[in-house]
Design brief:
about 475 residues; alpha/beta; Rossmann fold; Beta-Lactamase; Helix Hairpins; 4 domains; five-stranded parallel β-sheet; five-stranded antiparallel β-sheet
Length: about 475
Amino acid sequence: MPQSILIVTFDAELRQLLAQSLDQAGWAVHDAGTANQALRLIDDHDPSLVLLDLDFPDGEGMHLLRSMNARRHATPIVVISGQSDIGRAVEAFRSGASDFEVKSTLDMDALACSLRDILTRSSLQSPLRGTQAHLFRLIQKLPVIIFIINRDLEFEFLNLATTEILGYPPQEILRSPRTFLRRIAREDRGRFLRSLKRSLKPEATELRLEFRFLHKKGYIVSLAAQSVASPLTSGATPDRIEGMIMDMTRTSYMDKLLLQNEKLSMLRSMTEEVAHEIRNPLVSLGGFARQLRSRHPEAVETRIILEECSRLERLLQRINAYLEPMSVSLTRCFVTPTVNFIMSLISRRLDHKSIACDIDLGDNLPPVLADQEFLHRIFIYALGHGADIVAHSGCIRVTGQEAGGLVQVCMTMEPVCGQIGHDRLMMPFEDDEMNLAMCLRLVERIGGHLRMAQQGRKAQLTLSLPAYDNAIETKRTNRPKTLPTRD
């Protein structure tokens, strides 16, 4: 099948002359007299080369060149023009032209030879363009953010991973470069800029930086940036920074949970040790207590009992120290970004079971009075429990409303596996990673309550948390008033 050429010119006489000449030279020829017709033909026939007349009315030729280059970047476009000034030729090459011919010096045989050369070069470059396009698609699908930052500290390139990791599509960040900087946590912002500036100095070291970023859905993600060294001569100043940004949120948060689990494991060991140590003093106390029934209260055995009691008291003090509840710092917390954050942590677990999630908390859900760390744990227990009990290809729907000074978050799960009884809330020593008994205790610690219900294969978990404004107003109302003093 012969290679094809698309001729685009509004000049009917020139179009006929070019078509006849190129057809005799052995090419399949398509021609168009308008811009719309040309764009339709380039889509329908995918020609090997385009021969474009720039002299369209109202300067439409240069605009058509840019449009065709955008649609078929790999297709060579040879332009012809009645104007021979250098400025017009430069603009044409910048707009995507492969060659520039002037009409007054146009020779059909020479034009045919030039077109053959261009098509030969294009065919040789085709495998390279295919490889480049394949690598570009791979970069776009990587699960890490690939970036290029110029000397003005602005992004020149971002792949599609920003949508998943940051919540913002790359085009939005590229259009507004300061968007990214403004969303970096205030405490990390200065350190981020200083690191970038150091990486653009002569003999610069690679960029290695961890920082926090406010996701578009309102929760904080932990990120790690790593640059890739550019091949520069000694002492040269880099003109850009290339590298990647990785999402470390799940790793850092899970590390914190593992640390807490280690503490709980240590507490369990301490409890077992205490139980063993208490047993001997109790036996001693029992024996001596029987002897003291018939003896004087000031007998030697009394001193031994007091010593054992002191020892027992010290052990109990150690137990109390380890069992001391975690400090609670009640503050203004928002449920929606918290739920979004936890969903990002357990997303792989849900995807593994093809569980669909519908988060419908609305934009007007009021804040709650809670400890932010407690709130994270409450929802990781609750949503993780939902991931456990919902059957494959099931659904979890999360809704919220304010009622009676409480923010009620309702999780509806269906279909669930088996019978889900309320007694699960009273089982603090089950081995599940997501423990509802712990969830209940945390909810109660911040002044809320939890309720479970099941009807058939549909289960519902309702969390009622104190609304921030109502809780603050209640404290203000219940504050004791100072009575006036009499003179």
